[in-house]
Every structure is written in structure tokens, then in C-alpha cells.
Amino acid sequence: MSEQTDAELLAAHCDGDPDAFTEIVRRHRDRLWAVALRTTGNPEEASDALQDALISAYRRADSFRGDSAVTTWLHRIVVNASLDRLRRRAVRPWVPLPEDGAGESSATLVDDHRLADPRAAVEVSETVREVRAALDTLPPDQRAAIVLVDLEGWSVEEAAQMLDCPTGTVKSRCFRGRAKLAERLAHVRNPDGSDPVVPPDRSGMSPPPTSQPPTGEGGAP
Amino acid sequence: MSDSDIGGDLPPLDPELAAWLAADSAPAMPEEVWASLQARLAAEPPLSGPSDPRGLPEGVADLSEQRRKTRVRVLPLLAGAAGVALVGAVVIPTMRSADPVPVAEGPAGVLAVTSSAGPDPEPPVQSPPAPALGSPAAMPRTVLTSGTDYTTEALPEQVVTLLTSTGMADGSAVADAMVASPAATVLPGVGLASSPEALADCLGRLGLPAESLPLVLDAATIDGRAGSVIVTVTEAAAEPPGEPLTLHAVAVGQDCTDDDVAAARHWDVPLAP
Fold first, then answer.
1. What is the ipTM of this complex?
2. pTM of the model
3. Domain that includes residue A126, residue range
4. Is A111 on the interface with B (CB under 8 A)?
5. Which of A14, A168, A221 is the closest to B7 by Cβ?
6. Do the domain assignments include residue B1?
7. Do A79 and A156 reside in the same domain of the chain?
8. Residues 50..109 of A with a Cβ closer than 8 Å to B: which?
9. Which domain holds residue B146?
10. Which residues contact B121 (CB under 8 A, 6 or more apart)?
């Protein structure tokens, strides 16, 4: 089964193969999870969104027409389910339980391998926490675009397929989202409020993306 | 704020921002999530080919074949409500005269639009972008103007027909609808279908729980008067999956005035799992 392409597996699933769909999900599970987790910002919501989305995809697999890659289609469904969770949360805000110190379900956990150097782990953990907190403040559409393009590395075109919108809209959302992230992470860049100090090895880098957007972009975020 | 549609290339990510984002390495799916997902997938019956009836309740006709024959046209729509500009496409299936005519369905990808069980000869319909997020309310999953004249005596049966024709005749389909996106359009001037805020306000005044999720809104007539039939569900009612599900339906006058609220009819609609 592992030699089959995703499309072949999906066709086998539609023909009644009981294991084919699970094999597709197994192949892409980490990326799908990452998108759900980063979009919802909450492991429990991500789990619910992911499972609901994939069950829906399982049942309606015969509606897939092959206009995009199977993984793009799956991402699209997962992103939609994640955004739907966010919309519901906007109506009925999710209140996280206070952390008890163990934090096993916390989205701010750092991968274990980073704990080899405790000091580095703390720094990374703090940065990750700040980045995730900043990401959580973005409007869901902008967050999803940033997650797909800047975090998961999908192309603008692929992200547009997943988000069901024009590529220009994805670019606009990324641009606005980046600008907000840079603004909200300014204290990470410059924690004491003094003039930013540019390290020598970064002297040539560009400033935060506060410049004008590409052609056609207008108005403030 | 609407997202403008821009041209040109997306500028490269600022290196420092890129470094911050890179610090957040991609998380792997936790084993417990994977195990749960595998269990849920394993519990699903295998698909049995292109026409896989989804277990309609006894006495309810399977309209999937009829829906497959639905012709789908895509019309441009510019809808504005509450300061939100929604630009997209409206899916208008042309159905037999006796059937409700869906005006818009949610942008849950191709799945939401092509809810029939079998392959559709029509090309996929690109759904419009979702409505502005963070808004206090959302439109139902499906908004339609069926032209039905609901009558007090026949309301429960008519609503079963409505749910069947909109692909929500069983708990499984409703669960799917609950994870789909809301309809990305409104019907200006058509009562509660005119804005999500109007709908949310009316549902609140009707005494529905705050967590009620509107699934279907049919802007029609009730005993000859303009009104809306709204079917809602709560997450609590949908748990646990696989159990019989009870929806709540309400028929209310078009403008949801105090008199309309007082005269509104409420009833529950039990569905098979």
C-alpha cells in the first residue's frame, strides 16, 4: 500500500478499501496536526477540528475530483474546520484552564530535544511563547495564511487553494499578519524599550515589514 | 476589514520574524491524538462505491440522486452587511419546482457544496471566502428561499422535508454541517436572512440557548405570512457522536417583532444517528 500515491489510495478508499484513507492520513498526519494546532492555538480544539475534518473527508471522499493534490484537499478541510472552531470561539470564548505546572496539553511546550541545553531551552521557550501569543492575536484568516505560508511553507498558490480564496488575498493576509506580528513582537526585538541594537551578523537585514505592501494593497491593517 | 486582493509578489519574510517563527518548530501529532483518530476512522464503515447512502431515517426519501442532477450555476455576488464586504459566488442549484432552492451554502470547500453521495458531472464550485471572523454571529450553514408555504399543521413534516433536501436528514450529515463554514452571504431585505446580527438577535429573543448553531434558514411563508423557519443544533445535542440527535426548529415572522416572537412556534426534530 505504501507504494501507492495519495490519489490512488483515495480511489481505493472510495472503492471500499478500509485501510486506504488511514494510510493517507498517516502520511500527512504531522503536517495536518501542525496546521490545526497553529490555526486554533489550542491542542484540544486542534484535536477536535482535525478529527471532525478527517471524518468528514473520509465520508465525502468521493467528492474529491483531483483538481488539486490530495494533501491540499485535506489541508483545506482541516483549515476550514479549524477556522470554524475559531469562529465558534469568537462567539463563545474559550477559557483555558489554569496551568498546573505539568502542562502536558499546553501548546507552549518545547520539543524535548531542545531541553538538552536548559538555558537555550528557556530562551527558545520564551520566544516560542511570545510568537504563539502574537499569532493568537491575529484575525483567524490572517493567522491561517501565516500558518500555511510562513510556518508550514506552502506556496501562496497552494495556500489559496486551501483557504479557498484568490492568491492576492492570501498575500494581503500574509502581509497584514506579518506586520501585526512584527509590531506585537517588537518587545522581543527590543525588550528594554531602547533603540534596537542590530547584531553584527544581522546588520544587513531588512527592518520589520512595516513598509508598503505589494501592488494594490491599501489601507492600514 | 476586508482583505484586498493584491497583485505582485509577496515580499520575503523579514529575517528576524522568520527566525522567530522558525523557533517554533512544527509539532508532531501526539500519539494519543493519532490513536483517537485511528479509532474513529476504524469505526467508520468503508465506502461502498460512488453511491453510498448515508442511512436516512425510515420514511425519508434519499434525494441524493435527484441532487446529483442539480444544475449548478455560479453567479457573482456582492453582499455587504455590518461593514463587511463579502465578495464571492452564490451557488444556485436549479431544482424541481417542488423542492427548496438553496440560495447559498457555506464555503466549506467542495465538500459543503457537493453534498451528494456520488460523483457530480459538474465542475467543482469555488466557494466564496468566509464571512468576517470574530463577528458576534454567523449565518446558518444553508440559507435558502424555498417558496414553501409552511402551515401550522404540517410544520414538522415540512421541516423534515427541508432537512432532507438540504442534506441534513441524519445525525451524521448534521455533524458534517456543524464543522462546515457558515453561508458567506446574506439576502438583503429578506428578514432574518438579511444579516447575521438580525438572526442572532432574533434567536436570542426567541429564548434559544446562546450556543445554538443555526443550520438552516428558509425564508418562506408561514400560514401565508412572510416568515422564516430556522433549524438549530447545539454541540451538547450532538454529543456523543453516533447517538440520536435532536434539532430545534422555530418558525417566526419575517421581522421577528415582539408579536412575531410571541407567536413563534417551537418544536424539536429528532434525527437518526
1. 0.71
2. 0.47
3. 117-191
4. yes
5. A168
6. no
7. no
8. 50-65, 67, 73, 76-77, 80-81, 83-84, 86-88, 90-92
9. 64-271
10. none
